[in-house]
Design brief:
Radius of gyration: 12 Å
Largest sheet: 6 strands, antiparallel
Shape: globular
Strand order of the largest sheet: 1-2-6-5-4-3
Number of strands: 6
Strand content: over 45%
Number of helices: 1
Distance between the termini: 22 Å
Amino acid sequence: MENKNKMNNTTNKETYILDDSIAFELMDLLKAKARHFIQLNEYVYRLFDGQSVVTFTTLENNIQVEMVKG
């Protein structure tokens, strides 16, 4: 499935800009399998599952989701 909101794609990093409601649903799904869930500040949340790190950053009207696979 191709995401038209994809900003870049390197070997280990993917970045998306998502609507708030979609990003929060994704965050809830990922929290279930995350080893660590950290709120860095009121705008940035980070989840780690042992193999990848997903960072949610609140922007003005959307949320940027960045995934780095290890």
